[in-house]
Amino acid sequence: MKRIFVCLLFLTALSTYANAQDTPVGEWFGGYSYNRFKPDFLAGQANAHGWHVDVVLNTGLIGFVTDLSEEYGKSSGTSFNTTTFLVGPRFARRGEKVTWFVQSLYGTSLISADGDIFGPEIGRGDSSFAFAPIGGGIDLKLTEKLAFRAFQYDLISTTFGRGGGQLHSRVSTGLVLRLGKL
Hints:
Blueprint: H1 2-18, E1 26-37, E2 46-58, E3 62-75, E4 78-94, E5 98-113, H2 119-122, E6 125-141, E7 146-158, E8 166-179
Antiparallel strand pairs: 1-2, 1-8, 2-3, 3-4, 4-5, 5-6, 6-7, 7-8
C-alpha cells in the first residue's frame, strides 16, 4: 500500500511539469480555519474555529510564505483564543487545474483565556515558539486569477507552559487570489 501511494505521488509530481502554467508572482489566501487544540497534558482537547490568511511571494520553484491565523474555542466552559504567526518556504508543483504544495513554517503562537483552565503553568495567557515542520495543501484553479484551496493541513508544534511540546492540527479552506506572472 505504501509503495502504491509513493508511486502515485511521484507520478502526480511529474505530471505537473508536463502541464505547467505560468507561476504567479504573489498569492493571497483567506478562509476558514479549524484547529484541534491541546495546550498541555492536564487540559482536555478543544475544537477551535477561526480565520486563516497567508501571502506568498514566488521566485519560480520556491515561494516565501507569511502566515497568520486566529482560532476561538471553549474548553471546560472557558473561552480561549490562539493567534499564530509563521513564515517560511513553500515548494509548489503547478498543473493546468491543480497546484500541490508543501511548506515548512516557523514563528510564534499566543494563547489567552478568560480563566485559568490551562493550569498554573499557562494561566490566562502565554506565548511560545511555534513551527510547522511539514504542511501542505491543494489549490484548484477556478479562473486565471482565482483558485479554491480544497484543503491545507499544518501540524503546528508549540511549547506553552513548562516548555513541554504540544501538537495542534490546523486545517484550512478558502479562496486564493493569484497576482501577476513570473
